[in-house]
Amino acid sequence: MWCHGGVSRDLPWPTDLPASARERLERTLAPLPEHRRTTFALRVSRWWADLVDGLSPYPDPPAVAARVLELAAAAYLEREDDLHLLDERRSLEPDWFQRPGVVGYAVYAERFAPEGTLAGVARHADHLRQLGVTYLHLMPLLQPRPAPNDGGYAVADYRRVREDLGTMADLRALTRSLRGQGISLCLDLVLNHVAREHEWAQAARAGDERYRRYFHVFPDRTVPDAYEATLPEVFPDFAPGSFTLDEELDGWVWTTFNSYQWDLAWENPDVFCEIADVILFLANQGVEVLRLDAIAFIWKRMGTACQNEPEVHQLTQALRAVSRIAAPSLVFLAEAIVGPNELVHYLGQGRHHGKVSDLAYHNSLMVQIWSMLASRDSRLAERALSRFPQVPSTSAWITYLRCHDDIGWAIDDDDARSVMVDGWAHRKFLSDYYSGEFEGSTAEGLVFQHNPATATGASPAAPPASSAWAARCGGSTPRSTRRASRRPPRPWTWRSPASCSGMPSSTGGAVSR
Fold first, then answer.
1. pLDDT per position as a tens digit, 63-96
2. Count of CA atoms in the C-beta half-sphere (13 A) of 38
3. Pairing mode, strands 470-471 and 396-398
4. Strands (E), 88-216
5. Active site residues
6. Is there a contact between 361 and 403 (Cβ–Cβ < 8 Å)?
Protein backbone atom coordinates (compact mmCIF):
# COMPACT_ATOMS: atom_id res chain seq x y z
CA MET A 1 0.00 0.00 0.00
CA TRP A 2 1.07 3.60 -0.52
CA CYS A 3 -0.33 6.90 0.75
CA HIS A 4 -1.43 9.97 -1.14
CA GLY A 5 -3.01 12.84 0.77
CA GLY A 6 -3.30 10.63 3.84
CA VAL A 7 -5.21 7.95 1.94
CA SER A 8 -3.70 4.47 1.60
CA ARG A 9 -3.51 3.14 -1.94
CA ASP A 10 -2.12 0.08 -3.63
CA LEU A 11 1.46 0.33 -4.81
CA PRO A 12 1.65 1.28 -8.50
CA TRP A 13 2.60 -2.16 -9.87
CA PRO A 14 2.14 -2.97 -13.57
CA THR A 15 -1.34 -4.32 -14.16
CA ASP A 16 -0.11 -7.57 -15.69
CA LEU A 17 2.22 -8.45 -12.80
CA PRO A 18 0.72 -11.63 -11.28
CA ALA A 19 -0.98 -11.06 -7.94
CA SER A 20 1.11 -13.76 -6.27
CA ALA A 21 4.28 -11.97 -7.38
CA ARG A 22 2.99 -8.66 -6.03
CA GLU A 23 2.33 -10.22 -2.66
CA ARG A 24 5.81 -11.70 -2.43
CA LEU A 25 7.41 -8.41 -3.45
CA GLU A 26 5.41 -6.42 -0.92
CA ARG A 27 6.40 -8.83 1.86
CA THR A 28 10.08 -8.41 0.93
CA LEU A 29 9.82 -4.62 0.74
CA ALA A 30 7.72 -4.21 3.92
CA PRO A 31 10.64 -3.04 6.14
CA LEU A 32 11.33 -0.08 3.82
CA PRO A 33 9.79 3.38 4.19
CA GLU A 34 6.84 4.05 1.96
CA HIS A 35 8.60 6.29 -0.53
CA ARG A 36 11.20 3.57 -1.19
CA ARG A 37 8.53 0.96 -1.79
CA THR A 38 6.70 3.30 -4.13
CA THR A 39 9.89 4.00 -6.09
CA PHE A 40 10.55 0.30 -6.53
CA ALA A 41 7.00 -0.36 -7.75
CA LEU A 42 7.21 2.55 -10.20
CA ARG A 43 10.47 1.19 -11.60
CA VAL A 44 8.94 -2.26 -12.01
CA SER A 45 6.04 -0.67 -13.86
CA ARG A 46 8.49 1.17 -16.14
CA TRP A 47 10.74 -1.80 -16.93
CA TRP A 48 8.37 -4.78 -16.70
CA ALA A 49 7.63 -4.92 -20.44
CA ASP A 50 11.35 -4.76 -21.34
CA LEU A 51 12.12 -7.46 -18.79
CA VAL A 52 9.47 -9.87 -20.05
CA ASP A 53 10.33 -9.20 -23.70
CA GLY A 54 14.04 -9.79 -23.04
CA LEU A 55 13.24 -13.13 -21.42
CA SER A 56 11.42 -14.42 -24.52
CA PRO A 57 14.09 -17.09 -25.19
CA TYR A 58 12.57 -18.97 -22.23
CA PRO A 59 9.30 -20.94 -22.31
CA ASP A 60 7.56 -18.85 -19.62
CA PRO A 61 8.99 -15.29 -19.60
CA PRO A 62 6.56 -13.80 -17.02
CA ALA A 63 7.39 -16.56 -14.53
CA VAL A 64 11.14 -15.95 -14.91
CA ALA A 65 10.53 -12.20 -14.68
CA ALA A 66 8.60 -12.59 -11.43
CA ARG A 67 11.35 -14.76 -10.02
CA VAL A 68 14.01 -12.22 -10.93
CA LEU A 69 11.98 -9.38 -9.41
CA GLU A 70 12.19 -11.12 -6.06
CA LEU A 71 15.98 -11.05 -6.36
CA ALA A 72 15.80 -7.38 -7.30
CA ALA A 73 13.58 -6.59 -4.31
CA ALA A 74 15.96 -8.36 -1.92
CA ALA A 75 18.92 -6.41 -3.35
CA TYR A 76 16.97 -3.14 -3.21
CA LEU A 77 16.18 -3.81 0.45
CA GLU A 78 19.89 -4.20 1.24
CA ARG A 79 21.06 -1.23 -0.84
CA GLU A 80 22.75 1.49 1.23
CA ASP A 81 21.34 4.99 1.46
CA ASP A 82 24.20 6.65 -0.38
CA LEU A 83 23.67 4.26 -3.31
CA HIS A 84 19.95 5.06 -3.36
CA LEU A 85 20.96 8.71 -3.57
CA LEU A 86 23.32 7.91 -6.45
CA ASP A 87 20.46 6.11 -8.20
CA GLU A 88 18.29 9.22 -7.93
CA ARG A 89 21.07 11.46 -9.19
CA ARG A 90 21.83 9.24 -12.18
CA SER A 91 18.13 8.96 -13.02
CA LEU A 92 18.16 12.75 -13.41
CA GLU A 93 21.51 12.75 -15.25
CA PRO A 94 21.31 9.67 -17.50
CA ASP A 95 23.90 11.17 -19.86
CA TRP A 96 26.61 11.30 -17.20
CA PHE A 97 28.91 8.91 -19.10
CA GLN A 98 28.52 10.82 -22.39
CA ARG A 99 29.84 14.13 -21.14
CA PRO A 100 33.07 15.54 -22.64
CA GLY A 101 34.88 15.58 -19.31
CA VAL A 102 34.58 11.83 -18.74
CA VAL A 103 38.03 10.23 -18.83
CA GLY A 104 38.60 6.57 -18.11
CA TYR A 105 41.68 4.80 -16.76
CA ALA A 106 42.28 1.04 -16.90
CA VAL A 107 44.74 -0.45 -14.41
CA TYR A 108 45.68 -3.54 -12.42
CA ALA A 109 45.17 -2.73 -8.74
CA GLU A 110 48.35 -4.54 -7.68
CA ARG A 111 50.44 -2.48 -10.12
CA PHE A 112 48.85 0.91 -9.51
CA ALA A 113 49.41 1.40 -5.81
CA PRO A 114 52.68 0.61 -3.99
CA GLU A 115 50.65 -1.37 -1.45
CA GLY A 116 49.27 -3.57 -4.24
CA THR A 117 45.81 -3.70 -2.64
CA LEU A 118 42.35 -2.19 -3.01
CA ALA A 119 42.98 -0.18 0.13
CA GLY A 120 46.09 1.16 -1.54
CA VAL A 121 44.09 2.24 -4.58
CA ALA A 122 41.65 4.04 -2.28
CA ARG A 123 44.50 5.97 -0.69
CA HIS A 124 45.46 7.28 -4.13
CA ALA A 125 41.96 8.27 -5.28
CA ASP A 126 42.86 11.96 -4.96
CA HIS A 127 45.77 11.41 -7.37
CA LEU A 128 43.41 9.92 -9.95
CA ARG A 129 41.10 12.87 -9.57
CA GLN A 130 43.98 15.30 -10.07
CA LEU A 131 44.71 13.51 -13.35
CA GLY A 132 41.14 14.18 -14.43
CA VAL A 133 40.04 10.56 -14.18
CA THR A 134 36.30 10.10 -13.61
CA TYR A 135 36.03 6.40 -14.46
CA LEU A 136 38.38 3.71 -13.12
CA HIS A 137 38.44 0.22 -14.61
CA LEU A 138 40.22 -2.18 -12.28
CA MET A 139 41.24 -5.25 -14.24
CA PRO A 140 40.04 -8.69 -13.05
CA LEU A 141 39.87 -8.73 -9.28
CA LEU A 142 37.16 -11.29 -8.50
CA GLN A 143 38.51 -14.57 -7.12
CA PRO A 144 39.90 -16.70 -9.99
CA ARG A 145 41.04 -20.30 -9.98
CA PRO A 146 44.74 -20.94 -9.26
CA ALA A 147 47.00 -20.29 -12.23
CA PRO A 148 46.57 -20.81 -15.08
CA ASN A 149 43.44 -18.68 -14.95
CA ASP A 150 43.35 -16.75 -18.26
CA GLY A 151 44.71 -13.62 -16.64
CA GLY A 152 42.00 -13.67 -13.99
CA TYR A 153 39.08 -14.31 -16.34
CA ALA A 154 38.50 -17.86 -15.07
CA VAL A 155 36.36 -16.78 -12.11
CA ALA A 156 35.92 -19.24 -9.26
CA ASP A 157 33.81 -16.94 -7.06
CA TYR A 158 31.85 -13.87 -8.22
CA ARG A 159 31.32 -12.77 -4.61
CA ARG A 160 34.92 -12.71 -3.39
CA VAL A 161 37.85 -10.44 -4.13
CA ARG A 162 41.28 -11.89 -4.84
CA GLU A 163 42.88 -12.53 -1.46
CA ASP A 164 46.05 -10.64 -2.35
CA LEU A 165 43.97 -7.52 -3.07
CA GLY A 166 41.70 -7.53 -0.05
CA THR A 167 38.08 -8.30 0.76
CA MET A 168 34.59 -7.28 -0.34
CA ALA A 169 34.59 -4.85 2.56
CA ASP A 170 37.71 -3.27 1.02
CA LEU A 171 35.93 -3.06 -2.33
CA ARG A 172 32.95 -1.29 -0.75
CA ALA A 173 35.31 1.13 1.02
CA LEU A 174 37.09 1.77 -2.28
CA THR A 175 33.91 2.55 -4.21
CA ARG A 176 32.82 4.90 -1.42
CA SER A 177 36.17 6.68 -1.55
CA LEU A 178 36.07 6.94 -5.33
CA ARG A 179 32.53 8.33 -5.29
CA GLY A 180 33.78 11.02 -2.95
CA GLN A 181 36.25 12.00 -5.67
CA GLY A 182 33.64 11.82 -8.44
CA ILE A 183 35.07 8.59 -9.86
CA SER A 184 32.97 5.63 -10.99
CA LEU A 185 34.36 2.10 -10.62
CA CYS A 186 34.19 -0.42 -13.46
CA LEU A 187 34.69 -4.16 -12.88
CA ASP A 188 34.80 -7.14 -15.22
CA LEU A 189 31.92 -9.60 -15.13
CA VAL A 190 32.58 -12.75 -17.14
CA LEU A 191 29.27 -13.90 -18.60
CA ASN A 192 30.17 -16.80 -20.85
CA HIS A 193 31.94 -19.12 -18.45
CA VAL A 194 33.12 -19.89 -14.95
CA ALA A 195 36.20 -21.70 -13.69
CA ARG A 196 36.09 -25.46 -13.26
CA GLU A 197 36.57 -24.73 -9.56
CA HIS A 198 33.46 -22.56 -9.25
CA GLU A 199 30.90 -23.95 -6.80
CA TRP A 200 28.41 -24.58 -9.62
CA ALA A 201 30.95 -26.66 -11.52
CA GLN A 202 32.03 -28.46 -8.36
CA ALA A 203 28.41 -29.41 -7.65
CA ALA A 204 27.99 -30.62 -11.23
CA ARG A 205 31.11 -32.78 -10.92
CA ALA A 206 29.74 -34.16 -7.65
CA GLY A 207 26.64 -35.41 -9.47
CA ASP A 208 24.09 -32.68 -8.71
CA GLU A 209 21.77 -32.74 -11.75
CA ARG A 210 20.52 -29.23 -11.12
CA TYR A 211 24.01 -27.79 -11.50
CA ARG A 212 24.93 -30.14 -14.31
CA ARG A 213 22.23 -28.32 -16.28
CA TYR A 214 24.15 -25.05 -15.71
CA PHE A 215 26.62 -26.29 -18.32
CA HIS A 216 26.62 -27.84 -21.79
CA VAL A 217 27.45 -31.48 -21.08
CA PHE A 218 27.31 -34.31 -23.62
CA PRO A 219 27.83 -38.05 -23.09
CA ASP A 220 29.94 -38.55 -26.24
CA ARG A 221 31.40 -36.65 -29.18
CA THR A 222 28.33 -36.81 -31.43
CA VAL A 223 26.84 -33.41 -30.62
CA PRO A 224 30.18 -31.66 -29.98
CA ASP A 225 31.41 -32.80 -33.39
CA ALA A 226 28.25 -31.42 -35.00
CA TYR A 227 28.78 -28.05 -33.30
CA GLU A 228 32.47 -27.93 -34.15
CA ALA A 229 31.70 -28.22 -37.84
CA THR A 230 30.97 -24.48 -37.74
CA LEU A 231 32.84 -23.32 -34.61
CA PRO A 232 36.08 -21.35 -35.10
CA GLU A 233 38.79 -22.19 -32.57
CA VAL A 234 39.95 -19.57 -30.11
CA PHE A 235 43.30 -21.12 -29.15
CA PRO A 236 44.18 -23.55 -31.93
CA ASP A 237 47.83 -23.69 -30.84
CA PHE A 238 47.48 -24.61 -27.17
CA ALA A 239 43.75 -25.26 -26.54
CA PRO A 240 42.31 -26.72 -29.74
CA GLY A 241 38.61 -27.49 -29.99
CA SER A 242 35.67 -26.17 -28.00
CA PHE A 243 34.90 -29.18 -25.79
CA THR A 244 36.77 -30.95 -23.00
CA LEU A 245 36.30 -34.46 -21.63
CA ASP A 246 35.99 -34.23 -17.85
CA GLU A 247 36.26 -37.58 -16.09
CA GLU A 248 34.56 -36.41 -12.87
CA LEU A 249 31.69 -34.99 -14.88
CA ASP A 250 31.64 -38.14 -17.02
CA GLY A 251 30.99 -36.13 -20.17
CA TRP A 252 32.19 -33.60 -22.68
CA VAL A 253 31.72 -30.03 -21.43
CA TRP A 254 31.72 -26.92 -23.62
CA THR A 255 34.94 -24.95 -23.11
CA THR A 256 35.19 -22.16 -25.69
CA PHE A 257 38.40 -20.67 -24.30
CA ASN A 258 40.32 -23.10 -22.10
CA SER A 259 39.65 -26.55 -20.67
CA TYR A 260 39.29 -25.04 -17.18
CA GLN A 261 36.68 -22.44 -18.30
CA TRP A 262 33.24 -24.05 -18.54
CA ASP A 263 30.67 -22.29 -20.70
CA LEU A 264 27.39 -21.56 -18.93
CA ALA A 265 24.16 -22.89 -20.43
CA TRP A 266 22.21 -19.65 -20.76
CA GLU A 267 19.22 -21.49 -22.21
CA ASN A 268 18.61 -22.57 -18.59
CA PRO A 269 16.69 -19.74 -16.82
CA ASP A 270 18.39 -20.75 -13.56
CA VAL A 271 21.66 -19.46 -15.04
CA PHE A 272 20.04 -16.15 -15.97
CA CYS A 273 18.72 -15.74 -12.42
CA GLU A 274 22.11 -16.58 -10.90
CA ILE A 275 23.92 -14.00 -13.03
CA ALA A 276 21.22 -11.39 -12.41
CA ASP A 277 21.73 -11.92 -8.68
CA VAL A 278 25.50 -11.53 -9.08
CA ILE A 279 24.98 -8.26 -10.97
CA LEU A 280 22.76 -6.91 -8.19
CA PHE A 281 25.28 -8.03 -5.56
CA LEU A 282 28.13 -6.17 -7.30
CA ALA A 283 25.97 -3.09 -7.77
CA ASN A 284 25.38 -3.10 -4.01
CA GLN A 285 29.14 -3.03 -3.46
CA GLY A 286 29.11 0.35 -5.22
CA VAL A 287 30.25 -0.84 -8.66
CA GLU A 288 28.86 1.60 -11.24
CA VAL A 289 29.95 -0.02 -14.52
CA LEU A 290 30.10 -3.70 -15.40
CA ARG A 291 32.22 -4.72 -18.35
CA LEU A 292 30.33 -7.71 -19.75
CA ASP A 293 33.20 -9.97 -20.73
CA ALA A 294 32.78 -12.48 -23.58
CA ILE A 295 29.17 -11.44 -24.00
CA ALA A 296 29.07 -12.38 -27.69
CA PHE A 297 29.46 -16.09 -26.90
CA ILE A 298 26.69 -16.75 -24.39
CA TRP A 299 24.04 -18.26 -26.69
CA LYS A 300 24.70 -21.46 -28.63
CA ARG A 301 22.98 -22.49 -31.85
CA MET A 302 23.83 -25.51 -34.00
CA GLY A 303 25.14 -24.66 -37.44
CA THR A 304 26.50 -21.23 -36.48
CA ALA A 305 29.70 -19.79 -35.01
CA CYS A 306 27.76 -19.44 -31.71
CA GLN A 307 28.49 -15.74 -31.52
CA ASN A 308 26.24 -12.69 -31.76
CA GLU A 309 23.05 -14.73 -31.76
CA PRO A 310 19.81 -12.68 -31.32
CA GLU A 311 19.27 -14.14 -27.85
CA VAL A 312 22.44 -12.38 -26.67
CA HIS A 313 20.75 -9.02 -27.10
CA GLN A 314 17.43 -10.20 -25.69
CA LEU A 315 19.02 -11.46 -22.49
CA THR A 316 21.18 -8.34 -22.15
CA GLN A 317 18.00 -6.29 -22.37
CA ALA A 318 16.50 -8.37 -19.57
CA LEU A 319 19.60 -8.00 -17.38
CA ARG A 320 19.59 -4.25 -17.97
CA ALA A 321 15.91 -4.04 -17.02
CA VAL A 322 16.61 -5.87 -13.75
CA SER A 323 19.47 -3.51 -12.91
CA ARG A 324 17.37 -0.44 -13.79
CA ILE A 325 14.78 -1.57 -11.26
CA ALA A 326 17.09 -2.24 -8.30
CA ALA A 327 20.18 -0.13 -9.08
CA PRO A 328 19.62 2.33 -11.97
CA SER A 329 23.01 3.99 -11.48
CA LEU A 330 24.66 0.83 -12.85
CA VAL A 331 25.54 0.83 -16.56
CA PHE A 332 26.73 -1.94 -18.86
CA LEU A 333 29.83 -1.94 -21.05
CA ALA A 334 29.73 -4.58 -23.78
CA GLU A 335 33.07 -6.29 -24.31
CA ALA A 336 32.05 -7.22 -27.85
CA ILE A 337 35.22 -7.50 -29.88
CA VAL A 338 33.27 -8.40 -32.99
CA GLY A 339 33.02 -7.35 -36.62
CA PRO A 340 31.67 -3.96 -37.70
CA ASN A 341 28.39 -5.46 -38.90
CA GLU A 342 27.71 -6.92 -35.46
CA LEU A 343 29.19 -4.31 -33.13
CA VAL A 344 26.37 -1.76 -33.30
CA HIS A 345 23.84 -4.32 -32.07
CA TYR A 346 25.49 -4.29 -28.65
CA LEU A 347 24.37 -0.67 -28.25
CA GLY A 348 20.89 -1.50 -29.50
CA GLN A 349 19.32 -1.73 -32.93
CA GLY A 350 15.72 -2.35 -33.99
CA ARG A 351 13.57 -3.71 -31.17
CA HIS A 352 16.48 -3.38 -28.76
CA HIS A 353 17.17 0.29 -29.56
CA GLY A 354 18.50 1.87 -26.37
CA LYS A 355 17.67 -1.21 -24.29
CA VAL A 356 20.93 -3.19 -24.10
CA SER A 357 24.45 -2.01 -23.23
CA ASP A 358 25.11 1.65 -22.51
CA LEU A 359 28.76 1.56 -23.60
CA ALA A 360 30.81 -0.45 -26.09
CA TYR A 361 34.43 -0.47 -27.16
CA HIS A 362 34.82 1.01 -30.64
CA ASN A 363 37.03 -1.85 -31.71
CA SER A 364 36.74 -0.96 -35.42
CA LEU A 365 37.95 2.60 -34.83
CA MET A 366 40.88 1.27 -32.80
CA VAL A 367 41.94 -1.08 -35.60
CA GLN A 368 41.54 1.62 -38.25
CA ILE A 369 43.71 4.05 -36.27
CA TRP A 370 46.58 1.55 -36.25
CA SER A 371 45.92 0.84 -39.93
CA MET A 372 46.16 4.54 -40.77
CA LEU A 373 49.35 4.95 -38.78
CA ALA A 374 51.00 2.07 -40.63
CA SER A 375 49.71 2.82 -44.13
CA ARG A 376 49.62 6.64 -43.85
CA ASP A 377 46.30 6.45 -45.66
CA SER A 378 42.85 7.18 -44.22
CA ARG A 379 40.66 6.01 -47.11
CA LEU A 380 40.00 2.53 -45.73
CA ALA A 381 39.11 3.99 -42.34
CA GLU A 382 36.76 6.51 -43.92
CA ARG A 383 34.98 3.74 -45.81
CA ALA A 384 34.76 1.34 -42.86
CA LEU A 385 33.58 3.91 -40.33
CA SER A 386 31.21 5.81 -42.61
CA ARG A 387 28.88 2.84 -42.96
CA PHE A 388 28.28 2.39 -39.21
CA PRO A 389 24.56 2.78 -38.46
CA GLN A 390 23.52 5.44 -35.99
CA VAL A 391 23.55 4.12 -32.44
CA PRO A 392 21.05 5.18 -29.75
CA SER A 393 21.58 8.68 -28.42
CA THR A 394 21.53 7.22 -24.90
CA SER A 395 24.66 5.14 -25.55
CA ALA A 396 28.31 5.93 -26.23
CA TRP A 397 31.42 4.42 -27.79
CA ILE A 398 34.59 4.05 -25.77
CA THR A 399 37.44 5.31 -27.89
CA TYR A 400 40.74 3.62 -27.10
CA LEU A 401 44.06 2.72 -28.68
CA ARG A 402 44.98 -0.34 -26.66
CA CYS A 403 43.58 -2.60 -23.98
CA HIS A 404 44.71 -5.80 -22.28
CA ASP A 405 43.85 -7.84 -25.41
CA ASP A 406 46.08 -7.56 -28.43
CA ILE A 407 45.02 -6.22 -31.79
CA GLY A 408 43.36 -8.54 -34.29
CA TRP A 409 43.29 -7.05 -37.75
CA ALA A 410 39.53 -6.90 -38.25
CA ILE A 411 39.65 -5.45 -41.74
CA ASP A 412 36.52 -6.31 -43.72
CA ASP A 413 37.26 -7.59 -47.24
CA ASP A 414 34.35 -5.65 -48.76
CA ASP A 415 35.59 -2.41 -47.19
CA ALA A 416 39.08 -3.11 -48.50
CA ARG A 417 37.87 -3.82 -52.05
CA SER A 418 35.87 -0.58 -52.08
CA VAL A 419 39.14 1.39 -51.84
CA MET A 420 41.07 -0.90 -54.19
CA VAL A 421 42.88 -2.76 -51.43
CA ASP A 422 43.22 -6.51 -51.02
CA GLY A 423 41.95 -7.42 -47.55
CA TRP A 424 44.22 -10.43 -47.05
CA ALA A 425 47.30 -8.49 -48.18
CA HIS A 426 46.47 -5.51 -45.95
CA ARG A 427 45.99 -7.70 -42.88
CA LYS A 428 49.33 -9.36 -43.61
CA PHE A 429 50.95 -5.96 -44.06
CA LEU A 430 49.64 -4.80 -40.67
CA SER A 431 50.81 -7.98 -38.97
CA ASP A 432 54.24 -7.65 -40.57
CA TYR A 433 54.48 -3.93 -39.90
CA TYR A 434 53.75 -4.11 -36.19
CA SER A 435 55.91 -7.17 -35.65
CA GLY A 436 58.82 -5.32 -37.28
CA GLU A 437 59.06 -7.69 -40.25
CA PHE A 438 58.07 -5.06 -42.81
CA GLU A 439 61.06 -3.22 -44.21
CA GLY A 440 61.43 0.17 -42.59
CA SER A 441 59.19 -0.60 -39.61
CA THR A 442 60.57 0.13 -36.15
CA ALA A 443 57.76 -1.72 -34.35
CA GLU A 444 58.65 -4.56 -31.95
CA GLY A 445 55.38 -6.41 -31.44
CA LEU A 446 54.99 -10.18 -31.56
CA VAL A 447 52.53 -12.13 -33.69
CA PHE A 448 50.12 -14.41 -31.83
CA GLN A 449 47.86 -17.15 -33.22
CA HIS A 450 48.71 -16.38 -36.84
CA ASN A 451 46.24 -17.77 -39.38
CA PRO A 452 47.90 -17.81 -42.82
CA ALA A 453 44.58 -18.42 -44.59
CA THR A 454 43.12 -15.09 -43.49
CA ALA A 455 46.26 -13.23 -42.35
CA THR A 456 44.58 -12.55 -39.05
CA GLY A 457 47.48 -13.14 -36.72
CA ALA A 458 47.34 -10.43 -34.09
CA SER A 459 50.18 -8.39 -32.73
CA PRO A 460 50.44 -5.66 -30.13
CA ALA A 461 50.97 -2.19 -31.47
CA ALA A 462 53.76 -1.52 -29.03
CA PRO A 463 56.07 -3.68 -26.92
CA PRO A 464 56.00 -5.53 -24.65
CA ALA A 465 53.93 -8.19 -26.32
CA SER A 466 51.07 -9.58 -24.38
CA SER A 467 48.32 -11.65 -25.92
CA ALA A 468 45.85 -11.48 -28.72
CA TRP A 469 42.42 -11.91 -30.13
CA ALA A 470 42.25 -13.23 -33.65
CA ALA A 471 39.75 -12.12 -36.26
CA ARG A 472 37.74 -14.05 -38.79
CA CYS A 473 37.58 -11.45 -41.53
CA GLY A 474 35.99 -11.22 -44.94
CA GLY A 475 32.78 -10.01 -43.35
CA SER A 476 33.05 -12.49 -40.49
CA THR A 477 33.43 -11.98 -36.80
CA PRO A 478 36.65 -11.39 -34.90
CA ARG A 479 37.09 -13.58 -31.90
CA SER A 480 38.59 -12.81 -28.54
CA THR A 481 41.43 -15.12 -27.74
CA ARG A 482 43.96 -14.85 -24.99
CA ARG A 483 44.30 -12.33 -22.20
CA ALA A 484 47.23 -10.01 -21.95
CA SER A 485 50.09 -10.13 -19.57
CA ARG A 486 49.89 -7.38 -17.00
CA ARG A 487 50.91 -3.99 -18.32
CA PRO A 488 51.38 -0.52 -16.85
CA PRO A 489 48.14 1.49 -16.71
CA ARG A 490 47.09 3.32 -19.87
CA PRO A 491 44.59 6.21 -19.87
CA TRP A 492 41.85 6.40 -22.47
CA THR A 493 38.70 8.38 -23.14
CA TRP A 494 35.51 8.07 -25.09
CA ARG A 495 33.11 10.38 -26.85
CA SER A 496 29.40 10.26 -27.39
CA PRO A 497 28.08 9.14 -30.81
CA ALA A 498 27.42 12.72 -31.86
CA SER A 499 31.10 13.61 -31.47
CA CYS A 500 32.50 10.44 -33.04
CA SER A 501 31.20 10.91 -36.57
CA GLY A 502 34.12 12.79 -38.09
CA MET A 503 37.18 11.01 -39.43
CA PRO A 504 40.31 12.38 -41.11
CA SER A 505 39.50 13.31 -44.70
CA SER A 506 43.05 13.40 -46.00
CA THR A 507 45.21 10.43 -46.88
CA GLY A 508 48.10 11.69 -44.82
CA GLY A 509 49.62 9.87 -41.89
CA ALA A 510 48.35 12.10 -39.08
CA VAL A 511 45.26 11.06 -37.16
CA SER A 512 43.39 13.92 -35.54
CA ARG A 513 40.50 13.45 -33.13
1. 999 999 999 999 999 999 999 999 999 999 999 9
2. 10
3. unpaired
4. 103-107, 135-138, 142-144, 155-161, 184-190, 193-195
5. 293, 335
6. yes
